[in-house]
Amino acid sequence: MNKTISRRDALEARLRAIGDERYHDKHPFHHLLHSGGCTQDQVQAWVINRYYYQCSIPLKDAAFMSRCEDPDMRRNWRSRIVDHDGGVDDGGGLRRWLKLSEAVGLDPDYVASRKGVLPATRFAVDAYVRYVRDKPLLQAVASSLTELFAPKIHAERIEGLLAHYDFADDRALSYFRHRLKEAPKDVAYGLAWVLDHADTPEKEDMAAEALIFKTDLLWAQLDALHSAYVEPGRIPPGGWQPGEGAA
């Protein structure tokens, strides 16, 4: 009994240490955004590119559920799709993200079209969907555990945006406020499942590698943003140009 508890605790500590070292709250772009240092163009570029990630999350989760034979697991997992897609009338996280798009001066239809998304963003996000679709279930679930660290960054984002940007209000930031409630629910189930099923040293390594993959993916998206819009003249072909898609 004690050995099992010790193994679970050690694995959880290992996973949390990955986030402490590698989560994208430490990326220079987020420091710039949360401190009020971003221009309107840079905020808009972030909103456009991040939407591609947001709208791919339900696709990732649907791919995961199509492989999951356990009805109890599917029942627990499907709320993630509902959180993002919502109902026909009220929408969900995606519709709330489009409210943010409107608040920062973008046409929501333009953002929803996914035009102007950076090539590196597409490659990174599409790789995540494939990862969850193709890898063993243990790694697919473990890759979702960046949600362990998400509430902190959402809280910092709400505070920073409200303090530094005129567009920020309750309507514009509703996506992040909802995630403060949704993410802990999701990660409680996912973490417990990983700790239960990563029951050998090899499987523990698989879980850790999956979480590293996910943190790398999130970091790569911000690298692409920083390179294209903070460093002048680095927007690649096909990337959003400031002024496009204005509301």
UniProtKB/TrEMBL annotation:
GO molecular function term, any single one: pyrroloquinoline-quinone synthase activity
GO BP term (any one): pyrroloquinoline quinone biosynthetic process
Function: Ring cyclization and eight-electron oxidation of 3a-(2-amino-2-carboxyethyl)-4,5-dioxo-4,5,6,7,8,9-hexahydroquinoline-7,9-dicarboxylic-acid to PQQ.
Pfam families given in the database record: TENA_THI-4
Transmembrane segments: none
EC number annotated for this UniProt entry: 1.3.3.11
InterPro entries attached to this UniProt entry: Haem_Oase-like_multi-hlx, PqqC, PqqC-like, Thiaminase-2/PQQC
Alphabetically ordered keywords of this record: Oxidoreductase, PQQ biosynthesis
Name of the gene this protein is made from: pqqC
Domain annotation Thiaminase-2/PQQC: ranges: 13-223
Domain of life: Bacteria
Catalytic activity: 6-(2-amino-2-carboxyethyl)-7,8-dioxo-1,2,3,4,7,8-hexahydroquinoline-2,4-dicarboxylate + 3 O2 = pyrroloquinoline quinone + 2 H2O2 + 2 H2O + H(+)
Official protein name in the record: Pyrroloquinoline-quinone synthase
Pathway the protein takes part in: Cofactor biosynthesis; pyrroloquinoline quinone biosynthesis
Enzyme class name: oxidoreductase
Annotated family: Belongs to the PqqC family.
